Amino acid sequence: MNRAVSSKCFQCPTFRAGRCSGTAKRLLATDAAPLTRKDKKEGDISSVFSTFSGRKIPPLPERFRELKRNLTTGFEEQIQKSWDELVEVLKVRTEEVASKRESIIPQLNYSDIRAGSVSPETVAAIRRTGVAVVRGVVPKDEAEGLLSDVRRYFAAHQFPGFPSDADKKIIYESYWSPSQVKARSHPNMLSTQSWMNQLYSADAGQKSNADPTS
User: Fold this and answer.
1) Is the pTM of this model over 0.70?
2) Cis status, amide bond into 163, omega within 30 of 0
3) By residue range, what is the domain housing residue 87?
4) Within a domain: residue 29?
5) Distances in Å between the alpha carbon of 168 and those of 36, 45, 54, 131, 159?
6) DSSP helix/strand/coil, 109
């Protein structure tokens, strides 16, 4: 039977390492009075992203407050210190974003990736921002063909989306149309993803830590 973990559990090294053999079990947010399928009203993507619909998101149930309290008890000082450090970093980064605006996002051409000629400065910028715009990945004629195909596909099939008015719909809840699959599996797309993934690696002496609160 599930029950909330007491604050003493979080002081126990065995529990914090995930090796607790006691009867206490973390009470997950999904453990308390889960909704059944019949209780849920089917919606569209606007029910998840309130910026699309303007809907006000209701407060979370009280069980989430209790869950957070159980998770943070005994670690108040560490959490506050971590938060204060994050705020200071965000101040600097926010000012940088405000001054550079869209230019803060690195841009490069797929041809440079293929030729192995991406500059070290661009690589450093991508690693720092974690995002980039890569142009020319799919040749223009192929991209336009995929766009035409997906438009015909949506015209022939009914998909939920937002707005709900079919003539004004700009977001479709479709993820596996033929054109989408072709675009994601395009050789140039795959090689771009492979190149991006190789920009990140763990330090030689880096060790994983099973305790996220330390």
Assistant:
1) no
2) yes
3) 58-101
4) no
5) 33, 15, 17, 30, 13
6) strand
